[in-house]
Backbone:
């Protein structure tokens, strides 16, 4: 599917005032276009992915405190020259 190419991983932090209504926040994230992969109840966080065009909609969901994209690190193969 071509739309999957535009999906990027996201990490969403839920505002403390909304932790008791975490499932409502998750429903809002899904409605905004996020594909939810994990709900971390104890942390008040949600992981998943979405098209970057939906990022502002996801950030505007009631109860969302912060949205970030995880950093990716790449390690060169063992046979690569050190720099």
Residues:
């Amino acid at each position: 599917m071509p739309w999957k190419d535009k999906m990027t991983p996201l990490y969403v932090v839920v505002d403390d005032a909304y932790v008791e209504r975490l499932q409502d926040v998750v429903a809002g994230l899904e409605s905004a276009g996020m594909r939810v992969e994990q709900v971390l109840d104890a942390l008040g966080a949600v992981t998943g992915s979405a098209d970057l065009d939906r990022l502002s909609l996801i950030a505007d969901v009631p109860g969302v405190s912060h949205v970030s994209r995880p950093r990716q690190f790449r390690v060169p193969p063992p046979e690569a020259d050190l720099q």
Remarks:
- The first helix runs from residue 22 to 31.
- The radius of gyration is 16 Å.
